[in-house]
């Protein structure tokens, strides 16, 4: 196969020469630096994506992604569904709203909103919690449906004044199934012989859930009718609707789209960013900084390519001058050294990408085999979310940086004047 002359010469220059061992040494380490940077970037980003995915699943699975409430002075309260059946009918309407949006968001669950901040009186302490109401099998949030570790949802729904608490909360305060706790709602109160007292009621623990996140200590579930009675409201009343999305990170986009159909003067639209946004913003910033710092490894390796090519141009200037006297154009001369820089960049990026993918996909197996445990918990591996698309982006970034690093030495080589170089030959 007849290759272009610039490609043939560039590949030949890329191979080690007898009198160019130092240049070959620098080229090797520039290639190794690119490979190391690509490997580290793939490995770290996959682990951090895994941690973010676990936080997303465990924390955002139990909280409402979007909440729509009618304002007190709104005349459109009738458009807020008042039962699970009415809420289910709203799914098609909401998905129709977001179907043509420039993001792939779907609302997979629409539930009536019955919740209140409450104080839980425990045997030895008081604990602030968020009490959420569940009125039936269809109103159990998808994020906690399969996270019940003790008890059952059917038993909970049949038990009057029963409560489901997080397992971490129960372990911290020594609670068990059948124990009594008292819930107090500060927003509602009633008069007693000793003065005005917050509305309160004794509840029985009938179940425990576990999401392995801070939600286990902050959230409790009670029946909607019981919570409404505690808040001095009709049993079937609700404050609005709560939406569960297929991707919680699209909550802002969905809320903005829904605002076009639910005007701010009549409705209040909130999403999980209002309560848990700072945590995920911190995780996002940390990922960005790690991406930036690890990308510097690839940039430093690219600078090594510049150094190696500048020395190569100096070493090969006589040959370049002869090639130009034979009629080779400046573009062809430039392409020779760009090929040499690209050779190091492509080999380093592909080797680092392949090794990074292999180590990432087998990291937990390697840790088990060697006895390493970075989390300090026996039998628990690192959460890994490997993406072939991100692998492609990282490898492409390394190749592009190698090509950019080759431009300056290649331009210098193309500007060599044969008369000046061969004057004393």
Structural class: alpha+beta
Q: How does the major sheet shape up?
A: 6 strands, mixed, barrel
Strands in their spatial order, largest beta sheet: 3-4-9-6-8-7
Round the mean pLDDT to the nearest integer and report it: 78
Domain ABC3 transporter permease C-terminal: 292-415
InterPro entries: ABC3_permease_C (IPR003838), Lipoprotein-release_system (IPR051447), LolCE_TM (IPR011925), MacB_PCD (IPR025857)
Transmembrane segments: 22-48, 291-313, 333-359, 366-384, 390-408
Pfam families: FtsX, MacB_PCD
For the structure shown, list the relevant keywords.
425 residues; alpha+beta; 2 domains; 6-stranded mixed β-barrel; 4-stranded antiparallel β-sheet; 15 helices; 53% helix; 19% strand; elongated
Overview of this structure, please?
This protein has 425 residues and is an alpha+beta fold. The chain has two domains: 5-56 and 280-421, no CATH class; 64-272, no CATH class. 53% of the residues lie in helices and 19% in strands. It has 15 helices and eleven strands. The strands form two sheets. Strands 3-4-9-6-8-7 form a six-stranded mixed barrel. The chain has a four-stranded antiparallel sheet with strand order 2-10-1-11. The longest helix has 43 residues, at 273-315.
Topology:
Layout: H1 5-14, H2 21-60, E1 66-70, H3 84-99, E2 107-113, E3 115-121, E4 126-134, H4 142-145, E5 148-150, H5 153-158, E6 162-166, H6 167-173, E7 180-192, E8 195-209, H7 215-218, E9 219-223, H8 224-230, E10 240-245, H9 251-258, E11 267-271, H10 273-315, H11 317-325, H12 330-361, H13 363-370, H14 388-414, H15 418-421
Parallel strand pairs: 4-9, 6-8
Antiparallel strand pairs: 1-10, 1-11, 2-10, 3-4, 3-7, 5-8, 6-9, 7-8
Helix pairs in contact: 1-12, 2-10, 2-12, 2-14, 10-12, 10-14, 12-14
Membrane topology: Multi-pass membrane protein
InterPro entries: ABC3_permease_C, Lipoprotein-release_system, LolCE_TM, MacB_PCD
Pfam families: FtsX, MacB_PCD
